[in-house]
Backbone:
């Protein structure tokens, strides 16, 4: 054989200065130590500046200002609040308002998004292209412009309360908001609620029992109809039997404004609609790509096995599409929550507008207020992404 | 034709497709009237379009006033949109409060910007290499032209505004956030624990909070982190925040691309004797970035759209100019016109960016799939 084999064995492990840098392990340690030193130096420098600045301005640091009187009003609150309440309570009102608009936005955006996504896949050329135009136009315009546009249209184009659009003397739409009758619950109403809770529990128990039965005997039960009857039918029955225990208090048209009833303020409506319309365009694209990601062979195979079309959708196509749809969908939900902070542009009092806006300006505690706001948003997003990771691990395909 | 017609191999007659399988009628039938449901859908959609389009068209073009002196004058001319307002303020919408006699500098910068982006976007451009050198120098030239100094009259950044401000924020953010985002993504994938931890913390923080809170931090409390008595330009602070914010998003997009590269590619690069940076530059990143292009462009579009948020901390981007002009008593109540106008501008920019990304995706698709 002409080849010679190097028989010298592994290089001797002698020590030299150059080796510290050429060896992968020790180089890693050195790089990390340097990075850590720089990081600590920067943190120390910034912290030092903060302390010096606070001392120079003679400002204390602390969250005691949360107990002081806030001295400002909030036009829409879910819990009782007035200008004598504390800054802390204003913050809670703000958080609840953020959650309210995010929650309503998520529901509307999901519904609209799924409808649009399905329309986008429609074989009907006209419908398909119309959905495409909507999606492309809405996606490519900043959400802040949407919010201001919708708010502007509401304030300038809707009539004054005096000429409010009146539907059956109960619903009024004007530039001061949307007014509708307020339900006043009578004593017996708790029976309806109890019937609803009972129906819900029964429905899920029934579904479980039906599954066990099907697994054991192969017999199918009318799950859908029983669930519908017990969740919706039972409360309606209770409602009728107890003699309609709700009274509706209609709003009354006054000289300058509408009184009574329940009111949805234009700020809330504008923010809610704009966020939903904007996010629906993104959700539509997610839904479309999710459905397209399911191989055609999957539904063909299911049909070949003799599954009816509906079951093919429910048992084969939708579960696989959801696997693709849900992760980006949650990030859109998170985006709605974060984009709701733009409320400040139109005066809806969310967390940024209350504690990060008026409270900050009144007390001059920039540092503390911003820490609260940033901390809260971080808390929201970390919670949601933890749930997401758990869900992703659960539905991930097990490979090899 | 007789049933027993014989075909000579290779000489099949070119028959026309059966009648009713081509042409306009066929297209109409399959697309609009293939089933009862489809017919209903078509009719409902047509009716919806009939309700929406004519009034919109009238408002935009027919009943609108393109030249007017005030809102009252507009209303005399027609009941539609009052574009005269936009026309009167067009200069402000474009340049903000940039001094009138210095506006040529903005125009020149824009022209140079086009020249600098062309070689980046168009890879068959004649003389591309020399033009790319110009693209590298362009940011400095642009900064000099816009800010002044060295022979030009200096212009303060608080005079920046309008679409020019949007472009400044968008372009600066895009130029700086891409390299930073790639570094962060590499850091997050690193074997070095401390580096990974640092990058992950950075990315998660910036992705977890809304941009508007970061802008508030930039405008209200950044001064606390600086030595007492110092302060720097608000626009610069905003630019830094916007860049860091979009770098965090780009990092996540690039991480997705990095994770899609099979381990064998890393191992092959190692086996070739490439060091870390060389293997990243020559083997891993070209593949990873190619996959991440749609995501990166989406982040850029997002950054461009998010530049409107600066209006909330008082910078005069188009929305800021619009809101300021609306408080003029001559033009009150014309918010719809202003916002529709701004929406059209953003649509034109963002839509062309997304079209370009689709084009790039198709071009770079070297066809490993399908």
Residues:
């Amino acid at each position: 054989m002409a080849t010679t084999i190097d028989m010298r064995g592994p290089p001797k492990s002698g020590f030299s200065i150059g080796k510290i840098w050429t060896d992968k392990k020790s180089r890693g340690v050195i790089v990390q130590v340097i990075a850590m030193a720089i990081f600590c130096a920067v943190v120390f420098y910034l912290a030092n500046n903060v302390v010096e600045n606070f001392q120079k301005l003679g400002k204390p640091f602390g969250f005691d200002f949360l107990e002081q009187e806030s001295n400002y009003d909030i036009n829409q609150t879910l819990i009782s609040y007035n200008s004598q309440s504390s800054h802390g309570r204003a913050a809670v009102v703000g958080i609840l308002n953020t959650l309210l608009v995010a929650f309503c936005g998520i529901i509307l955006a999901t519904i609209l998004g799924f409808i649009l996504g399905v329309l986008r896949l429609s074989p009907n050329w006209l419908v398909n292209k119309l959905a495409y135009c909507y999606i492309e136009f809405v996606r490519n315009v900043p959400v802040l412009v949407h919010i201001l546009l919708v708010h502007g249209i509401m304030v300038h184009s809707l009539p004054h309360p005096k000429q409010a659009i009146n539907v059956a003397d109960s619903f009024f739409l004007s530039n001061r908001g949307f007014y509708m009758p307020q339900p006043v619950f009578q004593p017996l109403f708790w029976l309806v609620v109890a019937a609803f809770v009972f129906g819900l529990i029964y429905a899920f128990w029934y579904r479980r029992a039906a599954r066990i039965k099907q697994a054991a005997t192969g017999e199918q039960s009318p799950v859908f109809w029983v669930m519908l009857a017990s969740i919706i039918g039972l409360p309606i029955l209770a409602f009728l039997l107890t003699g309609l225990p709700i009274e509706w208090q209609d709003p009354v048209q006054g000289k300058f404004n509408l009184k009574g009833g329940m009111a949805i303020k234009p700020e809330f409506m504008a923010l809610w609609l704009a966020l939903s319309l904007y996010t629906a365009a993104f959700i539509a694209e997610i839904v479309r790509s999710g459905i397209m990601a399911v191989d055609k062979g999957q539904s063909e195979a299911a049909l070949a096995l003799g599954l009816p079309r509906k079951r093919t959708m429910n048992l084969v196509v939708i579960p696989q599409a959801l696997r693709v749809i849900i992760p980006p969908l949650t990030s859109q939900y998170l985006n709605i929550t974060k984009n709701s902070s733009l409320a400040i542009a139109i005066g809806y009092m969310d967390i940024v507008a209350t504690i990060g806006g008026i409270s900050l300006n009144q007390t001059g505690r920039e540092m503390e207020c911003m820490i609260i706001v940033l901390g809260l948003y971080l808390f929201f997003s970390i919670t949601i992404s933890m749930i997401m990771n758990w869900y992703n691990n659960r539905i991930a395909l097990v490979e090899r | 034709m007789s049933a027993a017609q014989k075909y000579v191999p290779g000489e099949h007659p070119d028959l026309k497709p059966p009648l009713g399988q081509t042409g306009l009628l066929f297209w109409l039938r399959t697309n609009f009237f293939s089933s009862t449901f489809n017919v209903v859908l078509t009719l409902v959609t047509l009716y919806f379009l009939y309700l929406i389009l004519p009034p919109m068209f009238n408002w935009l073009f027919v009943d609108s006033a393109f030249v007017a002196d005030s809102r009252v004058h507009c209303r005399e001319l027609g009941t539609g949109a009052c574009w005269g307002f936009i026309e009167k303020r067009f200069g402000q919408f474009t340049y903000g409060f940039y001094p009138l006699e210095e506006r040529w500098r903005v125009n020149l910068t824009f022209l140079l910007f086009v020249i600098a982006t062309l070689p980046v976007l168009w890879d068959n451009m004649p003389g591309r290499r020399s033009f790319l050198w110009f693209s590298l120098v362009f940011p400095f030239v642009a900064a000099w032209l816009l800010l002044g100094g060295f022979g030009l009259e200096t212009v303060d950044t608080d005079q920046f505004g309008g679409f020019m401000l949007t472009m400044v924020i968008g372009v600066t953010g895009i130029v700086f956030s891409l390299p930073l985002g790639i570094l962060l993504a590499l850091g997050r994938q690193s074997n070095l624990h401390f580096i990974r931890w640092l990058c992950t913390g950075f990315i998660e923080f910036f992705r977890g909070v809304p941009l508007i809170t970061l802008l508030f931090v930039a405008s209200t409390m950044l001064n606390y982190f600086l030595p007492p008595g110092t302060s720097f330009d608000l626009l610069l602070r905003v630019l830094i925040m916007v860049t860091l914010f979009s770098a965090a998003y780009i990092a996540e997009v690039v991480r997705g691309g990095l994770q899609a590269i099979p381990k064998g590619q890393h191992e092959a690069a190692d086996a070739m004797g490439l060091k870390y940076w060389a293997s990243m530059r020559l083997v891993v990143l070209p593949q990873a970035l190619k996959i991440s292009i749609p995501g990166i462009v989406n982040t850029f579009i997002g950054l461009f759209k998010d530049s409107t948020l600066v209006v909330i901390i008082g910078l005069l981007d188009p929305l800021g100019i619009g809101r300021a002009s609306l408080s003029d008593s001559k033009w009150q109540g014309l918010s719809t016109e202003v916002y529709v106008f701004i929406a059209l501008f953003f649509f034109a920019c963002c839509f062309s960016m997304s079209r370009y990304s689709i084009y790039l995706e198709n071009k770079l698709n070297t066809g490993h799939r399908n």
Observations:
- The longest strand of chain A covers residues 171-174.
- Chain A has a mean pLDDT of 84.
